[in-house]
């Protein structure tokens, strides 16, 4: 069976087109077989709705009087990029507010504009003969702007890695909050409805393909950044008119202790031109496989714990090393269904026609790592040995050990040598001065801030500054003490680096 996009568009015009969602197509192929399903179905609609950080909007504000060539511009205290024309700017979804931090960012400005709200524009400039103005402050709405064109460099990831946390402390990531000791697994992506999972060979998805973007019609303009099709992690660069979009499909969000992002609704129609395309659109969640990775390792390459299917992830529970672990999605399958259903409705009612790609998206290739001319040292490269003391020992014994080993910090361990606390020379001196030469436990700090050997040194610097402490025990996954890094030691390291 073969048909063309022109033939399908003619059926859209006369109202005879048969459209199903990707979820429906999977069931239809199982019931009828590939060839019969291909004969009956003209278009399969897909959809996804998830956090797409690499998103933003180009604005043209119009010229003021006197005119200004904006050097820097803020919208509700969120800075936009102005290294283009005089009153053009690009606002990224993840740009944070200068005043509200992670509670408000570029995505929130975009959502506020879609809601019809006024936002406050502040711009400064150096002034020129033809653009003499050096500052402007004004309120502005979406309707006041000449253009508001969404251009998202990386959307519609084909699939995502699943994330868990093997460490003993909670971590906060772009995959959400990950609980200690593999307390949860998070994942993202629509699985069976994922646009690129339904056309993995990019037979119909390419440059110029008309799509559903944020509740309006948009287009694919290129492969997305970090496009890595060889590993099944393809991406798309897309564009659309923000003024025509709907708020329910463009939503601002903040990931706790990570930053802002923007949830984007995106759907792509797949024309069923032959049996092979029909077969691809029959993909099921059981056939889409990804990996579960340990995000507690703050490195580019993280340990993979196991392979897992989207069917398993969507079940709400998976097995990790013999432990049943809850799973949760960061994207909304409910909204992905809404996207696919609305796109289906547009096509059936003659409001949306298919377009032929003008250029293929690459089907091979993988992302390269950043070229680094200087390697960042790791904790294991700078940590030093440290003496420990068992819980239950006295303050006097701790003082003696500090003097003998010439350390200001003494990790306290249990019978299994696992870290349970820490005391400093100040803690011990204060206790002895107050004649409190008893058990060590009452004076030790129990909530110890730690690092692991594979952590980068700059993480240690941030932790020392954030918690106003002077040392960090280095522990393994079993909380056994491997060494220590101190503020003094890191200062010497940084000083040597500056001299070099």
UniProtKB/TrEMBL annotation:
InterPro entries found in the cross-reference section: CBS_dom, CBS_dom_sf, Diverse_CBS-Domain, HcyBio, MA1821-like
Keyword Transcription regulation (UniProt): no
Highest taxon in the source lineage: Archaea
Domain CBS: 378-440, 444-500
Entry's Gene Ontology BP terms: methionine biosynthetic process
UniProt keyword Amino-acid biosynthesis, yes or no: yes
Keywords assigned: Amino-acid biosynthesis, CBS domain, Methionine biosynthesis
Name this polypeptide is given: CBS domain-containing protein
Name of one Pfam family that matches: CBS
Annotated organism of origin: Methanocella conradii (strain DSM 24694 / JCM 17849 / CGMCC 1.5162 / HZ254)
């Amino acid at each position: 069976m073969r048909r063309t996009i022109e033939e399908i568009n003619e059926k859209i015009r006369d109202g005879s087109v048969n459209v199903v969602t990707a979820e429906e197509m999977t069931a239809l192929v199982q019931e009828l077989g590939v060839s019969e399903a291909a004969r009956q179905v003209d278009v399969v609609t897909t959809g996804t709705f998830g956090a797409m950080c690499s998103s933003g909007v180009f604005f043209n504000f119009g010229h003021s009087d006197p005119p200004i060539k904006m050097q820097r511009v803020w919208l509700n205290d969120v800075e936009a990029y102005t290294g283009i024309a005089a009153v053009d700017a690009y606002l990224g979804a993840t740009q944070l507010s200068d005043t509200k931090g992670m509670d408000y960012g570029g995505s929130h400005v975009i959502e506020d504009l879609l809601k019809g709200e006024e936002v406050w524009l502040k711009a400064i400039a150096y002034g020129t003969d033809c653009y003499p103005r050096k500052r402007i402050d004004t309120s502005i709405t979406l309707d006041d702007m000449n253009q508001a064109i969404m251009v998202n460099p990386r959307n519609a990831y084909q699939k995502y890695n699943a994330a868990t946390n093997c460490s003993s402390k909670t971590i906060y990531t772009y995959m959400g909050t990950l609980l200690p000791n593999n307390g949860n697994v998070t994942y993202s992506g629509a699985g069976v409805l994922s646009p690129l999972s339904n056309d993995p060979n990019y037979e119909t998805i390419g440059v110029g393909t008309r799509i559903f973007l944020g509740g309006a019609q948009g287009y694919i303009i290129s492969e997305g950044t970090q496009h890595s099709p060889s590993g099944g992690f393809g991406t798309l660069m897309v564009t659309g008119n923000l003024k025509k979009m709907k708020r329910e499909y463009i939503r601002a969000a903040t990931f706790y202790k990570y930053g802002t992002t923007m949830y984007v609704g995106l759907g792509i129609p797949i024309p069923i031109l032959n049996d092979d395309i029909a077969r691809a659109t029959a993909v099921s969640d059981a056939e889409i496989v990804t990996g579960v990775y340990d995000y507690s390792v703050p490195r580019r390459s993280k340990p993979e714990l196991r392979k897992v299917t989207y069917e398993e992830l969507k079940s709400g529970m998976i097995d990790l090393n013999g432990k049943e672990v809850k799973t949760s999605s960061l994207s909304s399958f409910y909204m992905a269904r809404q996207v696919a259903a609305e796109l289906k409705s547009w096509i059936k009612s003659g409001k949306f026609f298919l377009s032929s790609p003008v250029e293929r998206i690459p089907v091979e290739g993988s992302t390269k790592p950043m070229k680094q001319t200087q390697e960042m040292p790791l904790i294991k490269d700078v940590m030093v040995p440290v003496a420990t003391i068992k819980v239950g020992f006295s303050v006097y014994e701790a003082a003696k050990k500090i003097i003998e080993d010439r350390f200001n910090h003494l990790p306290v361990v249990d019978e299994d040598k696992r870290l349970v606390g820490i005391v400093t020379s100040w803690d011990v001196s204060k206790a002895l001065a107050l004649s409190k030469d008893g058990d060590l436990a009452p004076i030790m700090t129990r909530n110890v801030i730690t690092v692991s050997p594979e952590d980068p040194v700059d993480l240690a610097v941030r932790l020392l500054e954030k918690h106003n402490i002077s040392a960090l025990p280095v522990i393994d996954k079993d909380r056994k003490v491997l060494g220590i890094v101190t503020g003094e030691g890191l200062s010497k390291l940084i000083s040597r680096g500056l001299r070099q």
